[in-house]
Amino acid sequence: MTKNYNADSITVLEGLEPVRTRPGMYIGGVGQKGLNHLVYEIVDNAVDEHLAGFCKNIYVTLEADGSCTVKDDGRGLPVDLHKKGVSAERVIMSTLHAGGKFDGQVYKTSGGLHGVGSSVVNALSKRMTVKVSRDGAVHYDEYSKGKPVAKLEKGLLPVIGKTKSTGTEINFLPDDSIFEKTVFKEEWIKSRLHETAYLNPELTIYYEDKRKGSEESIVYHEPEGIKAYIGELTKGRGKITEPIWFKDVMENTEVEVCFQFVDAFEENLHGFCNNIFTQEGGTHIVGFKSKFTQLINSYARQLGILKDKDENFTGADTRNGMTCVVAVKYPDPIFEGQTKTKLASAEAGKIVSAVTGEKLEYFFDRNVDVIKAIIGCAEKSAKIRKQEEKAKTNMLSKSKFSFDSNGKLIACSSKDPEKCEIFIVEGNSAGGSAGNGRDNRYQAILPIRGKILNVEKASIDKVLANAEIKTMINTFGCGFSEGYGNDFDISKLKYNKIILMTDADVDGSHIDTLLLTFFYRFMPELIYNGHVYVSMPPLYLVTPKSKRGEARYLYDDRELARYTKDHNPSGFDLKRFKGLGEMDASELWETTMNPENRVLKRVEIEDARLASEVTEMLMGSDVAPRRSFIYEHADEAELDL
Question: Which of 27, 98, 456, 573 has the fewest CB atoms within 10 Å, measured from its CB?
Fold first, then answer.
């Protein structure tokens, strides 16, 4: 019987219920990225106090109990009675779109603009406590899963002490019923805090990790600002120019840029708006890029380096070798999405372009040797670009680059990309088992032969000559991108899920790493848009000798240790899978491919700069940094014994 669709069918989510129901809309997901985003939301509010001129110190502590504390010495949240009849602090912490950042008076510029940051963190925390030092008293409030716990007195917060200081201290414990994991990733947090210190030279951030086994204390204070940031980003690189820095204010917008050219065949550009890292760029980045390209081509023709018959340098040519930070403080920014990964304010782009043109013309007119060095980089880039474009054209035109170059793709019958998924497996044996065990309506299988090319060390012509890579490019259907243009169109992707299904051992992990390096460098949108997954095949099968017992799959050594602790080793048989090829079709379906039972890890990138640095370090040619990184993180490794 069909259910009636009427007024009774409409559910209204009150208060913070929408956040708990759809957390991904507010923090981008419930994985590691979303978890760390909780810290950033609270820190961003403290930084806004600094931008307003009232906060000099921020303290961020990862507590031993798994919670996080963020404390600042700003003015303190308002605690007086709001027109809603309760303390203003409670309105801020328990109401979406409530805050002091909408009228442009209390905060001229800020990162937290939607009025949802603190309340979202509150909604997604098992416990949150708030201490506000203001007007000589310490005011206290407490919440559980977004709902108030502390009792108010005539609408006002209880006072728990006296103080001469001011500021806000927030402690929150993420809700483990919401998040996949509740252990903060300290490397990402430290990177974000350090970036914030670079962007705010007068701010000091104190970081402390009190969790067992990872105790650490760091003070982030960078009085040289983004000039020091550029120095850090270019450390160890051969310098072609010294850092070039400029800063100006136009139409209430502060524009600060610093860049340097180094001897590296790449572009490394980072954009920030109101201290928020705009991972996907935006209008401020476009404004800088377009004006910079225009200037370089103009000077190249003035100096006679480009002749009348010569075509202009491309934007990528002019920025090849550039490491750059573009930071704007804009009064009323428009971001795409609550997580603020892209700036959409058109006026900001125009202002950045105008400031860039004015400041760089003044500088280049007085430093002709510098502009010649930059044009030299563009010439080198253009020459190599043309050579590689020719190689790419030749490679793409060859018949051997046609669809499914290794002839092993096992296609699915459905043509609906939203429903389809493809498993990339190692070898024909695993491919055969996967092919027989799959749901052939929606699951495709693509076997590859061993370890693919390490694209971090290879030129574009070698990358495109690799049979496995050519097959993946054609099979996915969306093309690829690289340094000289973007031929990638994610709307043409044929599979909603791309699942790496390799053996649960060191070799399998190495293959995963090589594949992920390829995706990150040539198809990064696949990762950013959540299409790439890693399967979790079991490592063991335990079969009780007793007829009453049931066979059970164990996915790693930790699970085996827990099992043997509770079961007598003489009472069961243990089988270790050396590879997926050892599983028959039914076992592989049951453990790794069946959507009802399987466990998948979605690949996410929280910090694009950190991800790029680590990828280059681990997969590049320089051995010393890689060895140092491995030694520093050896205690975090999972050994395959």
Answer: 573
How many Å apart are CA 480 and CA 521, to the nearest integer?
A: 9
- 17-220: CATH class: alpha beta
Whats the size of the chain, residue-wise? Answer: 641
Helix (H) or strand (E) holding 34: helix 32-51
Mean pLDDT of 390-414: 63
Check residue 122 and give its pLDDT: 93
Task: Give tens-digit pLDDT for 544-576.
Answer: 888 777 888 888 888 888 888 888 888 899 988
What pLDDT, on a 0 to 100 scale, did the predictor assign at position 77? 92
| 345-349, 387-391, 575-579: which is most confident | 345-349
Architecture of domain 403-537+601-605: 3-Layer(aba) Sandwich (3.40)
Residue positions annotated with a catalytic role: 426, 503, 505, 507
The rounded percent of the chain whose pLDDT value lies above 70 is: 85
468/500 Cα distance (integer angstroms)? 14
Contact assessment for residue 424 and residue 500, using Cβ atoms and an 8 Å cutoff: yes
Long-range contacts, stretch 60-64, CB < 8 angstroms, 24+ apart: 60/189, 60/193, 60/205, 60/206, 60/207, 60/208, 61/207, 61/208, 61/209, 61/210, 62/184, 62/186, 62/189, 62/208, 62/209, 62/210, 62/211, 63/171, 63/210, 63/211, 64/210, 64/211, 64/212
User: CA-CA distance, 118 to 96, in Å (whole number)?
Assistant: 9
Where on the phi/psi map is residue 589: left (φ > 0), alpha (ψ -120 to 50), or beta? alpha
